[in-house]
Amino acid sequence: MKTVNVAVAVIKIADRVLIAKRANHQHQGGLWEFPGGKIEEGEELLNALQRECHEELDILPISITPLTTIHHQYPDKSVSLHVCLVRDYLGVPFGKEGQPITWAHQTELNNFQFPAANLEILSLL
Ligand SMILES: Nc1nc2c([nH]c(=O)n2[C@@H]2O[C@H](COP(=O)(O)OP(=O)(O)OP(=O)(O)O)[C@@H](O)[C@H]2O)c(=O)[nH]1
């Protein structure tokens, strides 16, 4: 199965993390996620991360640090999540694609349902 490379932004300001709800029709739909999306052919990770944050949230991350890479096999899809920590950005985030977003306190992240691949990310925060 072909692996999909995904840029994932953990946007963390003080003790709060920005999460978004995936639309029902999407892969792993209805679950909460960190903003991001597929890295295009020949695209650099940081560029993909900035592009996705602009497309989904209307912000431009300006402080980006690689956090980890997670390889996960779903029954129908294989993904490599290239996770970066964003500590600063320009703009005011909103769900540009109509998706609900929220700033969750890091201690309450366990109350939200995430895709299985995200459990490892949550353990790092
Ligand atoms: N953005 C994002 N994707 C995630 C997370 N965790 C996780 O398993 N994924 C998986 O990564 C894959 C790519 O994400 P995506 O669906 O947002 O990418 P996209 O918008 O470019 O593609 P699409 O057009 O297929 O929806 C999906 O299979 C999704 O289920 C996460 O926290 N954030």
UniProtKB/TrEMBL annotation:
It catalyses: 8-oxo-GTP + H2O = 8-oxo-GMP + diphosphate + H(+); 8-oxo-dGTP + H2O = 8-oxo-dGMP + diphosphate + H(+). GO terms for molecular function: 8-oxo-7,8-dihydrodeoxyguanosine triphosphate pyrophosphatase activity; 8-oxo-7,8-dihydroguanosine triphosphate pyrophosphatase activity; 8-oxo-dGDP phosphatase activity; 8-oxo-GDP phosphatase activity; metal ion binding. Its EC number is 3.6.1.55. It holds the Pfam family NUDIX_4. Mg(2+) binds at G36, E56. Coiled coil: none annotated. Residues 1-125 form the Nudix hydrolase domain. It is an enzyme of class 3 (hydrolase). The keyword Oxidoreductase does not apply. 8-oxo-dGTP binds at R22, H27, E33, F34, P35, G36, N118. Its cofactor is Mg(2+). Keywords: DNA damage, DNA repair, DNA replication, Hydrolase, Magnesium, Metal-binding, Mutator protein. One of its GO terms (biological process) is DNA repair. The keyword Magnesium applies. Belongs to the Nudix hydrolase family. This is 8-oxo-dGTP diphosphatase. It comes from Kangiella spongicola. The lineage of its organism: Bacteria, Pseudomonadati, Pseudomonadota, Gammaproteobacteria, Kangiellales.
